[in-house]
Structure formats: C-alpha cells, structure tokens
Amino acid sequence: MIPRKLVALATGLAALLLSTATLAQDQSILNKVLDSGTLRVGTTGDFNPMSFKDPETKEYMGHQIDAAKQLATDMGVEVEFVPTDWKTLINGVVAGKYDIVMTGTSMTVTRAKAAGYTIPWGRTGYLPLTRGEIADRFKSWDDINQPDVTVGYNLGTSFADFVKLRLPNAKVKEVESPARDWQELLAGRVDVTVSSILEAGKLSSTHETLAIPFQKVANSLPLSFIAPQSDHVWLGFLNNWMRIKHEGGYFKSLNEKWGIQGQD
User: Fold this and answer.
1) What is the pTM for the complete model shown?
2) Which residues does residue 247 pair with via DSSP β-bridges, in sequence order?
3) Using an 8 Å Cβ cutoff, are 29 and 99 in contact?
C-alpha cells in the first residue's frame, strides 16, 4: 500500500499545480483582453504592404492590419492600434503598452532574447534597393560590401543586424524612425538600402527612380507576431489561432490579397 503521507503529499502537489495553472490563466493577457473587450495591437504604420496608413483617411491598412482585425473578430473583441516604431517595438510589448505586435516582423535571435514569438505565418528574405541611375554598379552582394558604398538601414530592424554581419566593409547610415531608409536613398544620401521581398517590389513600382539591381535573395527568415515572452497562455492561444487559420486557408488568401510572394 502507498503510505498515507505520500498520498497526502501527492494530493497537495496536484492541488498546487492546479492553482498555479489557474493563476497563470487568470493573469494572462488572454483573459485581460476578453474581460476588457479590447485587443491592443502595436504596429508601425510605415511598412507597405504590411502596415501603413491610408493617405486620405489616415486609417491603418495592410496585410497585418487585416490579420489583427480578424484576430479581434474571432475573439469577439474590438481592436485598438497602438503606434510604435522599429527601435522601440520590443520595449513596448515588454512594458505592456500593447498585447501583440503585428507589423511584419521577422524572427531574429536578438529579438527572441527579450520577447516571445508565435509560430510563423510566412517567411521573408532580403533584397537590395538602389537608384536606377547607379543600379549597374551592383551585380551581387559582394559589390555592395565595398568601402565606397554607403548602405542605409533603420535602427531596430533586422536589416541592421544583416548589414553589420554581411556587409562589414560598406559605410553605413543609421536612420531613426519615423524616417525610413529608402527616403535617404531617394534623397541621394545613401547608395543602397536592404529591403525585404515584402516591400522591395512595392517601393520600386511606386518610386520610378528606385530599382532592385539583382534578385539574389539573402537571409531567409520566418515572419511571426510578437507577444510577451513569459505569457505562455497567451502565446498558446495565439499559436492555436494561427494553426486554425493556416489550415482554413486564411493566410493564403490574405497573402494573395496583398500580393505577398514567395509563401507556401
């Protein structure tokens, strides 16, 4: 027979684990969102076609904005978009300024040290962007990694890490949000910016002077939403929501709507 003390100990341990799980559920963002009726979404509004503002209405729109609205609808709550920028978006989610980041973020080790990621909804890669008048100078990434080439990037983006690691010989120009690196390119203050397969095509078609000098994609990365690292209940819910949406074809349709290429 099992000793009574051992049975009592096991029963107490089970009760403790149950109460701990219940407490985690009660304190999770999931319950806070359901109780308040509002999902707070951090977004940058400067990343077309992911998250940008309609020039006339000033309302947020884009791939990630649609996904945020769908998440809120499925949860039965309203969505509130909270402005952030690339340099501070991780600090914002850690500080509780918003419940989730939905703006077209890629997974990086640097970000993963401080914040949690959902399972990926897609993937991205990097392409160079330059001015058409000097595009012939660049046939490969090696041509960009030269001392006489100035590369611009926005602080806080995954492009910053890529430039430092892969283009160490080039001169760099760091750009603070809300300004964008491609604006420096248009102004002639940099020779190249590193863009993504999500944005490069849109920028080169919108601005006639911009061009993609070659199509060798570098640094393939998963695309995911960001949430607080320690809230496993919230992350678990978000991951389950994403699995349901993936299986139902939601993200495939969303990618087609916004012209997102290179996805499964």
Assistant:
1) 0.82
2) none
3) yes
Sign of the C-alpha dihedral computed for residues 240, 37, 99 and 264 taken in this order: positive
Q: Where are the alpha helices (DSSP H) in the chain?
A: 4-27, 29-36, 63-75, 89-94, 109-112, 141-144, 158-166, 181-186, 200-206, 232-247, 250-257
CATH of the domain at 169: 3.40.190.10
- Domain containing 155 equals 125-220
220 neighbors 123 (Cβ within 8 angstroms):
yes
The DSSP output letter for 38 is E
263 lies in some domain: no
My answer on whether 247 and 202 are in the same domain is no
Pairing of strands 116-117, 226-227: antiparallel
Give the Cα separation of 59 and 68 in Å (integer): 14
User: Is residue 16 a part of any domain in this protein?
Assistant: no
Residues constituting the chain = 264
Task: Please tell me the total count of domains within the chain.
Answer: 2
Tokens of 210: 């911009």
- Residue pLDDT, tens place only, 71-95: 999 999 999 999 999 999 999 999 9
